[in-house]
């Protein structure tokens, strides 16, 4: 059973290597897939922050929107550094909740 699973896995990997050399990563199809991926991620983030469940639902929407805005400004203000924007957004949300909010995370 293990040998069959390994054969199936490595067979697809080998096929991907053979096909992968002929693909152009700058083609319009790949750009379209990239745009779709970013749209899905953006939609999931927006849904999570606008319509949250669990503990995040207790945080006021104004705090969440301020955190999103601060992350957005840092992302575009500091050369599209994603991890810096995420860090600033999370820290902003935590600071707002801990210092101004009635609930705590």
Summary?
The chain is mainly α and 105 residues long. Helix content is 74%, strand content 0%. The radius of gyration is 21 Å and the shape is elongated.
Topology, please?
Elements: H1 2-20, H2 28-50, H3 61-77, H4 82-100
Helix pairs in contact: 3-4
Overall residue-averaged pLDDT value = 91
Class inferred from helices and paired strands: mainly alpha
Kindly give the count of domains. 1
Radius of gyration: 21 Å
Order of helices and strands: HHHH
Query: Regions with pLDDT < 50 over 5+ consecutive residues?
Result: none
What's the total count of β strands? 0
Largest sheet features = none
Q: Could you say which overall geometry the principal axes of the C-alpha atoms support? A: elongated
* Percentage beta strand: under 5%
Distance between the termini: 47 Å
Share of helix among residues? Answer: over 70%
Number of helices: 4
How would you characterize the overall build of this protein?
- By secondary structure, the chain is mainly α.
- It has one domain.
- It has 4 helices and no strands.
- Helix 3 packs antiparallel against helix 4 (82-100).
- The longest helix has 23 residues, at 28-50.
- The radius of gyration is 21 Å and the shape is elongated.
- The N and C termini lie far apart (47 Å).
Features:
4 helices; 105 residues; 0% strand; mainly alpha
